[in-house]
């Protein structure tokens, strides 16, 4: 991570320059630091909460102890994500297997 010498804000890569997110100042990339830069293009989406209506829940665990508020169906796919602090219980995100309705449940 590189910070702006002028205002102290975090800089981001733009071609061969590092550009300040706040004041717009730019400096050439320091190639000696190149090994320490991480590109977000290589990140996976494995930790992303599937909130899109077309997200693929099929193949995920199923819950048979829930009832869809939209259609009354009793089986839904679910994922569990830690959305709060580490000392808080995780959140379960459901998708009804019948109508596709989505909801969440806090433990």
Characterization of this structure:
By secondary structure, the chain is mainly β. The protein folds into two domains: 11-42, no CATH class; 62-106, N-terminal domain of TfIIb, CATH 2.20.25.10. 0% of the residues lie in helices and 28% in strands. The chain has strands at residues 11-14, 17-20, 26-28, 62-63, 76-81, 91-96, 102-106. The strands form two sheets. Strands 4-5-6-7 form a four-stranded antiparallel β-sheet, with no helix packed on it. The chain has a three-stranded antiparallel β-sheet with strand order 1-2-3, with no helix packed on it. Strand 6 (91-96) and strand 7 (102-106) form a beta hairpin. The radius of gyration is 22 Å and the shape is elongated.
Q: Give the mean pLDDT.
A: 78
> Spatial order of the strands in the main sheet?
4-5-6-7
Fraction of residues in H or I helices? under 10%
**What is the assembly state of the chains in this entry?**
single chain
Topology as H/E string? EEEEEEE
Cα end-to-end separation: 37 Å
Tally of individual domains: 2
> Briefly, what CATH class of the largest domain?
Mainly Beta
Fold blueprint:
Layout: E1 11-14, E2 17-20, E3 26-28, E4 62-63, E5 76-81, E6 91-96, E7 102-106
Antiparallel strand pairs: 1-2, 2-3, 4-5, 5-6, 6-7
Which keywords apply here?
mainly beta; N-terminal domain of TfIIb; four-stranded antiparallel beta sheet; three-stranded antiparallel beta sheet; 7 strands; 0% helix
């Amino acid at each position: 991570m590189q910070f702006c010498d002028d205002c102290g804000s975090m800089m981001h890569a733009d071609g061969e320059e590092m550009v300040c997110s706040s004041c717009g100042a730019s400096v050439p990339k320091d190639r000696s630091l190149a090994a320490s830069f991480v590109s977000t293009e290589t990140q996976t989406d494995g930790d992303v909460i599937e909130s899109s209506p077309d997200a693929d829940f099929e193949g995920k665990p199923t819950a048979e102890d829930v009832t869809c508020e939209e259609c009354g169906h009793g089986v839904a796919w679910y994922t569990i994500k830690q959305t709060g602090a580490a000392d808080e219980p995780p959140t379960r995100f459901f998708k009804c297997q019948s109508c596709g309705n989505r909801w969440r449940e806090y433990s």
